[in-house]
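Hey L., structure's done. Input below.
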Amino acid sequence: VANDPAIVLQYGQQPGYAPLRALLAAEYGVEDTQILVGNGSLQLQDLLAAHLVRPGMTVLTEQPSYDRAITTFRRRGARVVGIPLEADGIDIARLEAELKRQTPAFLYMVPDFQNPAGVTTSLEKRRAILALAERYGFWVVEDVPYRRLRYRGEGVPMLRDIDPRHVVTMTSFSKLLSPGIRVGYMVAPAALIGAVTREGENTYLS
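Output:
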């Protein structure tokens, strides 16, 4: 921003500060049209739910899950259904049983060092979740704010790295830098980013 002082006197770019989006796009190997920067990941979850959820629709989560996310989804009219966690991630059999009853707006999960249970989803289960997303046609929201806070052991690939077609990746700088910074971002197909960006424009302009 020091090299771009005029930006502080203008409305910002609706998808977020362009140089930051370019850096994130390079990091994830996507176009900058697939990046949306927001006021922390919780705001992005709210905007995504505003776009995808209609009153009475189901959102699936791990059980237990992040309480603020659950509150956000319910505020948008979602019926939130929890799928029990096991030591290596969500119970796949219970997840598929629920999917046979109804297709959710999305599955929200924290696959790395899950909040509040601390569980990391295994590679086998990540692949199984993506196969179910392909079969039943729903989005998987992977919220990964803790992913880089690994102190030992080997990391497991993000769901996006395995197969990005049904994946929305969200994260925040709050856990890495400072909670007060309130900067998060979302990585998703350009069409979905565009739709969620418009939700933002209708909420806070830029």
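The chain is about 35% helix and 20% strand. The mean pLDDT is 91.

-- N.
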